[in-house]
Amino acid sequence: MSEPVVTATDGSPSATAAVRWAADDAARRTVPLLIVHVVERWPYGISAFPPPGWQDAMAEAGDRILAEAAKAATERRPGIDVSTELTGGTPSEILRERASSTSEIVIGSRGTGGFAEALLGSAVLRLAGHVRGAVVVVKAGQDGPGEEIVVGVDGSPDGEAALGFAFEQARLRGVVLRAVCAWHVPLHTVMPESVHDVTGIQHEQQRVVAERLAPWRDLYPGVEVVEEVTYGHPVSALTDVSGRAALLVVGSRGLGAVGSMVLGSVSRDVLHHARCPVAVVRP
Questions:
Q1: What was the pLDDT predicted at 201?
Q2: Total-model pTM
Q3: Tens digit of pLDDT for each residue in 23-44?
Q4: Which CATH superfamily is domain 5-138 in?
Q5: Residue 20, exposed/middle/buried by CB under 10 A (0-12, 13-18, 19+)?
Q6: Measured CA distances, 153 to 30, 87, 95, 239, 253 (Å)
Q7: 8 A C-beta contact, residue 123 and residue 228
Q8: Which segment, 112-116, 193-197, 254-258, is predicted with the most confidence on average?
Q9: Do domains 5-138 and 148-282 have the same CATH topology?
Q10: Architecture of domain 148-282 in this structure
Q11: Considering only CA atoms, which of 161, 11, 17 is closest in space to residue 91?
């Protein structure tokens, strides 16, 4: 059987948007959809003494949440193969376990209870940086079609997985792929006599982007590609074009802009400010 698309839900608006996005992608890829709800441990640090019936109540609530999510998925994409799973633990731990049997995990960027902690800040970066394949982060209201796929490009071999994922998404949707490379020179190196060097750097970045894209163009001849090499901050460059995108794709590690985007504060800025779903793809 083909690997399913896995999504997690806690019943929040962003989780519902993630379920709908995952249903769309499962239908495009003709693979099953698995929707997971995690019943978290008793949250008050006294694990041996939860209130009587607490676990049963949480399981009943989880069943309702899963039923609503499955309904949302099948209403969005009638005919897809949907299954649900109710399990215990923490969302980040469970999703890392499920990553071994899927190439794509789709999560909401905000939620209720533990999901607010699990899917924001360092936890989402740990999930995206340590599981294989793609982690797609969706905010409420971001499950629309969009006009193109945007991918961040740098000179790192680790970015190849992101390029492959982005090309496949563009092919499945029949939309343009916009490859964005944003670069900037550190302030202490920008001197009046370096103007010509900056121009040379721009040309070199264009060459690197064209070189990185060439084999993927050969593999996906039907995908129209727009190359965009710009001088500026990577967050600004990518979020500026995210408003018309169906998906913004970045690698989990890399050099320069894309590397810092995923591993540090720039990553959080992109996840918070991008106006479309963001996919972090690890080789």
A1: 73
A2: 0.84
A3: 999 999 999 999 999 887 655 5
A4: HUPs (3.40.50.620)
A5: buried
A6: 28, 38, 27, 14, 11
A7: no
A8: 193-197
A9: yes
A10: 3-Layer(aba) Sandwich (3.40)
A11: 11
